[in-house]
Every structure is written in C-alpha cells, then in structure tokens.
Amino acid sequence: MKIEKFSEMLDEIQRERGIPKEAIVDAIRLSLLSAAKKRFKGEDENLEVRISDQGEVKIFLKKEDQESDITPNDFGRLAAQTAKQVIIQRMREAEKDEAFEEFLHKQGELVTGIVQRREYGGYLVNLGKVETVLPFAETIPGETLREKDHVKLYLVETKKTPRGPFVAISRAHPGLVKKLFELEVPEIKEGILEIKAIAREPGKRTKVAVYSHDKKIGAVGTCVGHMGQRIQNIVREMGPERVDIMEWSENPAVFIAHALSPAKVARVGINEAEKSAKVYVPEKELPLAIGKEGTNVRLAVKITGWKIDIFSEEEEQKKAAEESKLKTETEVKEKAPATTEEKEKPKKRARIKKVKEEGEKPKE
Q1: CB-based burial of residue 143 (10 Å sphere; 0-12 exposed, 13-18 middle, 19+ buried)?
Q2: For residues 195 and 142, what is the distance between their CA atoms, to the nearest angstrom?
Q3: Measured in whole angstroms, how far is the alpha carbon of residue 73 from the centre of its chain?
Q4: Sign of the dihedral defined by the CA atoms of residues 290, 291, 292, 293, in that order
Q5: Cis, bond preceding 262 (omega within 30 deg of 0)
Q6: Lower CB count within 10 Å: N or C terminus of the chain?
Q7: Domain boundaries 174-314, corresponding CATH code
Q8: Distances (CA, A) of 216 to 212, 222, 235, 247
Q9: What is the CATH number of domain 106-170?
C-alpha cells in the first residue's frame, strides 16, 4: 500500500511550516504501529512498520531472526487516514511551538493587539498568531476599549500550555511606560539617555526619572520633544494619565527635590541612616508637593526609595522664630538684677529664725 504524493507533501510542509520530514514520518510510523498492534494482538513486540521515501507502507512480523510481510490488503485506506491526521496534528503543534517561541522572545516588549470583544473579566485581544485576554485589572483605569481598537500592550509573560501558548499582557504595568518612551525617544535606544526609575499609579499619574550620558543633551527636554510632540504621543496612548519627567541625580537631596516636581522645593534635609528626608516648600507650593489625594508625594517616595516628610517653609520659620524668642526671654529673665523685695527675703527669714530660737514672738 502507498500514500499518494507522500514525498511532495512532506517537502511542502517542511518548506512552508518548517517541520522536518523525519519528524512527520516517525509520527506516522508510530500511529500505524499502534493500529497494527490492535489488528495483530499478541504480537506487540514483534511488529515493525516501514515507510519508504515514496510513501509505501509495509508491516513486518519478526520471529527468530526471520521476518515476513503481513501487510493487510485493506491497510492502505487506514494508512492514508492516519497520515492525514498525523500531519494535521503535527502542523497544529508546530504552529503552537512557533507562536510560543515568537512571543517568548517578545517577553518584556511592546506588542500591538486588536480588541475582538469585551468578555467577562476582560477584553479578548488578537495578537496575530494567538488570542489572549486583557484583564480589567490590567487596563488603565478610566479607559474604555472598543471592538477593532488597535492598542499597545506590554507583554508580561509567556507560558506553554496544552492548549497552546498563554500570553499575559498589561496596560497598567510600568514597563508599558518605559517601552513607549523607547519607541518615541530614539536617544534611549541609542544609549544617550537612560531611564533610571519609574513610579506609576495607572490612570492617575506616572513619574519617570531620566539621566543623560551626554552633558550636551538635556534629558527632560529631549523626552518632551519639539513643541512637546514626543510626550504628547506617549500621553495619548496612556489616556487620562499624567506623566511627569524629571532628571535623575545621584545626590539624594537633588533627586528628591526633582521627584516632587512640579512643586518648587526650598530645601531638603537628609538622614542617610534612616533613609528619610525632611522637605521644606513655600506655603503656596504645599498642595502641589503633596498632590491630589497624596499622589505626588506617594510617587516621589516610590521613585526615590526614601521616606519623605513635607513641611511648610513659612510655618517652620515662624516656629523657629517663636522658639528663639522664648529662649531669649528666658535668658534675659535669668540675667536680670534682683528686686528690693527679693533682697529683703533672706534678711526676714534670718530674723524669724532668731526670734524662734529666743522663744519670742516675732514683731510685725
């Protein structure tokens, strides 16, 4: 029995799908051997299936160094059906492996997906060779995705499962911000600029600390772009979320001051042992430094890794002035000369003591 156009079929599959011919032939041989064992029960250990390059299939029974061809006449149809099923199965497995390898290499990168529909718990997104779910928890709060929307996603993880590769995606991950900056600011890819840290509260605010390895190139201005074009493209992708770009510094006091932008910081006191900082800002800058619901200072803590306490500069100066005044008054009081009454008190006590000793009643 012979499988029609066997060699041409294997060549085409290997060329278009990248599946080795040997792998397909071995899979077909094993499937036919399994079928033969069911047909010739009790001869499991002595059966062998051979497939020629032209697709001719034969079953041999080996006993005592002798072999005989026991191929049934009706085995041709079974061989053809088995070959078809095995090829389809191998092609599906190859597609799954190919998709897994592709997305495994894209892990930690930016990918573009098309929203298929809204489902319970998230959005079904088509990534090309696979479909996956973007959970609501991984979307940007406040955004609504619609069918056929093209969205940029951060590929968090790729896992191999029996049903094919599982791809975890996110729009709330800080990595999305980093990759968007790399996409819009070529100086980052070139190594001229470096993103040192990112702190993010999805849907609210993000802070990005950037450092320039070239003193002639400003880190913040380069990321903002001409007329703000670069940062506008990034913000447009992130919806309602606000993005603050700051210059990174190895000096903790300077970095903390930058992290609290847009508030203007008067001075920063550093406690390196406790890794804490006291920051003083003008009274009018206090709301900006703290931010809505504490967002600004909270992100500043995240991006710097320091504990930050914010104080009003005016209140601190007023408090210092009051303490200084109180100290001065105390010192003046201690140095002031004694009054006549205070001078007479020791003499009066002495007279009273003398009268008591003499047993007389003191005169008023």
Answers
A1: middle
A2: 26
A3: 62
A4: negative
A5: yes
A6: C
A7: 3.30.300.20
A8: 9, 11, 26, 14
A9: 2.40.50.140
In CATH terms, are 6-94 and 174-314 the same topology?
no
Give the CATH class of 6-94.
alpha beta
Q: Establish how many alpha carbons lie within 13 A of residue 154's alpha carbon, considering only the half-sphere containing its beta carbon.
A: 21
Encoding tokens for residue 261? 């932008």
The answer to whether the beta carbons of residues 164 and 170 sit under 8 Å apart is no
Q: DSSP letter at 70?
A: -
What's CA 203's distance to the chain center, in Å?
15
Q: What residues are paired with 122 via a beta bridge?
A: 119, 135
pTM over 0.90: no
CB-facing half-sphere around the CA of 363: CA atoms within 13 A = 0
Parse the chain into domains and list their residue ranges. 6-94, 106-170, 174-314
Distance CA 334, CA 248 (A): 52
Describe the strand order of the beta sheet including 276-281 as a list of residue ranges.
267-271, 276-281, 307-312
141-198, pLDDT tens digit by residue?
988 899 999 999 999 999 888 777 889 999 999 999 999 999 999 999 999 999 999 9
pLDDT digits (tens, 9 = 90+) for 291-342: 999 999 999 999 999 999 999 887 776 675 666 656 665 555 555 555 556 5
Q: What letters, b where the CB count within 10 A reaches 16 and e where it falls short, cover 91-127?
A: eeebebeebbebbeeeeeebbebebeeeeeebbbbeb
> Residue 357: how many CA atoms within 13 Å on its side-chain side?
6
What pLDDT was estimated at residue 25?
A: 82
Residue 41 tokens, joined: 């029960």
317, 304 Cβ separation under 8 angstroms: no
Do the Cβ atoms of 217 and 192 come closer than 8 Å?
A: yes
Token pair of 66, please? 């002798």
Q: Kindly report the number of other CB atoms within 10 A of residue 246's CB atom.
A: 23
- What φ, ψ does residue 249 adopt, rounded to 5°? -140, 145
Between residues 86 and 263, which one has the greater pLDDT?
263
For residue 242, the Cα-to-chain-centroid distance in whole angstroms is 18
C-beta separation of 138 from 172 below 8 A: yes
Nearest alpha carbon to residue 116 among 129, 126, 103, 107 = 126
